[in-house]
Amino acid sequence: MFFIMYGKMHSACLYGIEGVMIGVEIDLANGLPQTSIIGLPDSAIREAVERVRAAVKNCGYRYPQQRVTVNLAPADLRKEGSAFDLAIALGILTTSGQLMMPAAEEMLLIGELALDGSLRPVTGVLPMVEAARRSGFSKVLVPRGNEAEAALISGMAVYAAGHLRELPHPADAGTGAADQPDVVSDKQRHIPQASADHPDNEPPLPFPVTVMDSQGDSGRIHQPVMALNLEHLRYHPQHSVSSLSGTADEMLREDFGDVLGQSHVKRALTIAAAGMHNIILAGPPGTGKTMMIKRLPGILPELNDSESLEVTKIFSAAGKLTDTRSGLLRSRPFRAPHHTISAAGLIGGGSIPKPGEVSLAHRGVLFLDELPEFSRNVLEVLRQPLEDSVVTISRARAAFTFPARFLLACSMNPCSCGYLGNTGTQQRCTCSPAKIAQYRAKISGPLLDRIDMQVDVPRPSDWKGQGPALSSAEMRRDVLRAQQIQAERYSKLPISWNSELSGAALRRYAALNKESSLLLHGILESLGLSMRAHDRIIKLARTIADLEGAAAISSAHLAEAVQYRNLDRQVVAEE
């Protein structure tokens, strides 16, 4: 007699930063005992055979001595990771008649199995659960370490377990597998039992099963002896509004009030934060460039609900969520990669691409300290994300798109020794003109053209006689006021900040009067600026006007915006 049995569970995997639903199909057939996983699995998934086999046996169940085929559908999508272990294990146990899972069609299963049956957390649970909700699923079973992350998606009943033996509830199982030690007798292994209430003493299974013998007649099937009751594993999240990366109050502990002098730099940073404009600070060592940029997140507004979910999904896909008990990320990300980073580390990459630093900085700040020390090839890959606010990575099978809308903040010295233009008596620049040109050539013109604000940071000389320094709270108040104006102005558009204006929207919301237009035209001619710089100056002037509460852009706003193109003006002066 020839038996074929079929069962199906539902799991998910990551495709970029988005979750994709995967059907885990199990087929048991008579033949030589072996297990095959098909459907373009990676090595971690192929190794799931041994993890699942050991976990099933060590939890008191029996692994089928048959030909086991596991198909991950759709079969043309490449899959990676260990999140399918739980779905494969439960699929084999239900299909072989050892467990019954009535809610299998509406439950997502995610988790990695240890050899003893323990469930280990995996990365990317948040986008996977969101994909399941969009697909109509209402329940998800995850490892205990992922329960808080899964609960961030509303409308999903979250069940969490730490071990495979926890799944059958003791009240339903009696002395079943949940109560047994790792080594049990054959009688205790939940071998299918017959029923006297059905012909042939074997009622049908509650999931799709095809049973045929060699002549095409119905064969004999087994009834599971235990139904999974997961209510004892139901997770009830604790409600909290705090952020994982620190609350706004924690950010404000590093206060701009601690920075003596440099009032014009604080003004520039306030404008940058108010409109999410890219900025570069250039000056000799020890003038506070790095210190001030590190305080920039403290004056930025918190993420709104849609932005928060978007950013948290990226961190989940990248495996950067260390604690989700506090809820979604609310503070804007601040990423500061080392100058030795590779191009793939900056924009993302890999055989199945993962998000890089520009995507991890999405809706936040990407800080590149000592900009000329970065490889020129690495810096050039920033052109597309700065222009399009996305990163597109193409592979043979597919193209992956990651969001990358961030504020680029950079710092640099005026030359390799750092003291060019220093008027002090002790530290003088020792760089030759050729060396200075070589140092600055690491930053290409097209990249510099995409940076709205280029600000000189000289060594402060009058800080002793100044009054109280401008604090982060005062700067943040101005930023929030300008941000509220922009939110109301762009409420019907898919943008939030002045820096995102382009095309018809730029001409409508940042229109110049005749006097301002003539002024800008003369500046472009004298400095030789590009049309990209032309648009960025107008967007910067729009933010300056918003900070002052002005409805229209004046010549004074435009003149101040031009003053922040210091490096462009220096190039013209040198020529």
UniProtKB/TrEMBL annotation:
It comes from the Bacteria. It comes from Paenibacillus typhae. Residues 275-461 form the AAA+ ATPase domain. GO terms for molecular function: ATP binding. Residues 170-205 are annotated as: Disordered. Gene3D superfamilies: 3.30.230.10, P-loop containing nucleotide triphosphate hydrolases. This is Magnesium chelatase family protein. InterPro entries: AAA+_ATPase (IPR003593), CHLI-like (IPR045006), Mg_chelat-rel (IPR004482), Mg_chelat-rel_C (IPR025158), Mg_chelatse_chII-like_cat_dom (IPR000523), P-loop_NTPase (IPR027417), Ribosomal_Su5_D2-typ_SF (IPR020568), Ribsml_uS5_D2-typ_fold_subgr (IPR014721).
